[in-house]
Amino acid sequence: MLFYIVRRLLQAIPVLFGISIIVFLTISLIPGDPATAILGAYATPENVAELNRDLGLNHSLPIQYTTWLSGVLQGDFGRSFALNRPVAAEIGDRLGPTAVLAGTALVLCAIFGLIAGTAAAVNQYGWTDRILSVVVLIGISTPSFWLGLMAISLFAVWLDLFPTGDMYSLFGGGGLADLLWHLALPATTLAVVATGVVARLTRATVLEVLRQDFVRTARAKGVPESRVIRNHAFRAALPALIPIVGIQAGFVIGGAVYIEEVFQWPGMGRMLVGAIGSRDILLVQGGVLVLASAFVLINLATDVIQSALDPRVRHR
Amino acid sequence: MSTAIQRGLTVSALALMSFSATALAQTPPDVLAVGQVAEPQSLDPHAVTATNDFRITVNLYDGLVRFASGSLEVEPALAESWEVSEDGTVYTFNLREGITFHDGTAFNAEAVKFNFDRMLNEDHPYHDTGPFPLSFFFSAVQEVEVVDASTVRFHLDEPYAPLLSNLAYPTGLLVSPAAVEEYGEDYGRNPVGTGPYQFTTWEANRQVALEKNEDYWDGEPGLEGVVFRPITDGNARVNEMLSGGIDLMVEVPPDLVSTFDEDPTFVVHEQAGPHVWFLILNMREEPFDDVRVRQAVNYAIDKETMVNDVLQGTATVADSVVPPAFAWAYNDQLEGYPHDPDRARELLEEAGYGDGVDVTFLVTQGGSGMLDPVAMGTAIQADLAEVGINAEIESYEWNTYLGIVNPGLEGEGHMAQMSWMTNDPDTLPFLTLRTEAMPDNGGFNSGYYSNPEVDDLLEQARRSTDQDDRAALYREVQEIVNEDAPLAIIANWQQNAVTTTAVENFALEPSFLLDLHEVSKP
Description:
Chain A has helices at 2-29, 34-39, 45-54, 61-73, 87-122, 127-141, 144-158, 176-210, 213-220, 225-262, 268-277, 281-309, and strands at 79-80, 85-86. By secondary structure, chain A is an all-alpha fold.
């Protein structure tokens, strides 16, 4: 098991390396330069050139990249141009909120997706299955930013049940209840699409298991249906369901970028949107690298859990 | 209905009720929550250029002078009084005594010198704490001399009449030298001034919080604290306002002003300011090297429709390079260009473009002070098409756009959108219309206008220390520029803000700054 984990960790290194190169090149291809963004409308070409020199942007791309990478390897992500603050500090402030939002959405999508998918599979072609299919289809096809805006209009502005945004109340809040209250709309919105996908794939996986011989045997032996589903079918399907949920982690992290913007959630997504707007190269690079690493680590964790549940995976 | 479902519904209803009770709790009294358009870049007044950041810094700091409430006239602030030498090159300021910065550092002539040296001298030990993009406001200052603890003297290399208004602008706000020494590069996140409010916290993308400075020299502030929240999206700001999460929002999207106008729990505030939205016409290339074509563009554009329909009354029609907010220098005799497509067609015919002409029109997708540039660009395109000028729009994101337009339009396009917000009537013409201000010389004359008469008048206006003289000179400049039409001047922005009725003594300032000293919210 340990060997498997180490092997997977080593495999992640070239992936992260590749990501860092792609991110670096993509950012440098975006037109517009950081100096103009920092200096604003009153920047003369001279000021721009001078600031680019100060920022070290007059060096060639390979030199910029190696300077950046050697810093990153030592834990130094550089200094954000636009915010004039260490990138690591800025990311440190944002990582928690994003983890809370994406984590909650992931838990929601796992719980509801697995339950809905299993229920649909068990009642294949029944009413539950049909209704769930329609709901899932709607869920998958609705853009989450639109859903977010609708949720704000309805639940925050019109019914005044939830706040329109932010992570804690500005005044007097800050506890767990306050956090959950603020989390309700964005986390649900973020979870909708992922829940739909998980439900769909769960339905297919469970259906496949239900058709297998050991299920038929269990039923033939007279095991009550609820136990067949719970103890035989679902348990056998679980190793295949773990990676389905794991992959959703990536979508949830990606979706958080929109959702954070809609709900003014103070996380990595909002930070990245702002950083891209202000051509804050180091902040974008650092932020994307951290998110990509999180994604890689979550995938790794899913694989490890899956291999613990189903040892055959380890030897693939 | 089964009991289980009933119980479930009761529980959720109770839960919802307890939630909504929290939701209805508004912001506490005496603390003002302000919905801002973006996260500030920095709270170092010397390093920032955006109105968004100014709205915070003016409440944290004071300058030597400030704009008097409701006007753009300069009045004493940290300087009690000042004298200007006969030749206009020496300004002596007598400083208010007994004032300290929020960190306890004494405010005195040394502190003033430290501030300007930091901005202007590249070899000052704290010059590299940030780029100071607007330090050119003070580039005429040769030396700041400490006469005694409460007297400071600015020596200029030549007379420079806009100095006082520039000192009143947020770039002239004074920071605590001890704090700059302590925080260095991180000063922008740990600001210390002498203002009515002092800095408490800055949570990334959540809020910047200030609290009352009890010992403020100009009287105790009206609020216990102020919280500035960055809410980038205009609709989100409106939602937050409607649900009671903020007490004051700035820059209401034009489409939504009426939402608040009709609701008696809100007050809509409007104020014209020193803003001009215009088109730069490239005079180095055909067809705009011909004055008749430039005038035709001016006649062709329907500015009334622009401000009333496209901008829904959030701007007024502009006709001069000096906005009416500078009442003393604005030429109200100026006729401007009315919407007259027939006259435009005649002029084009005369200039030999009777069969129509193709031009490239650079449009930005957003940007500070640019109002609604894409919609405005499209409206202009339609107006021009009607008289035979076929404008092909090329649109760019703001930073990219500045990178194309600021270095000059030659080879890039025939016309481009731009807007300026200024603190003195001198700024816009001096930086964008002088021969010396061509982009190769580091200026913003991206359309290459050159008229020796205008150059001369602007130089004279800078040297004159008499406001009436200056006014006469600027009026003449406006007339010539109107006739030469190097720009198509379209609109002056009416800034707006909404407050709840609980907010008292709030008014928008013509300077576009957000002065919260007197505001209260009992």
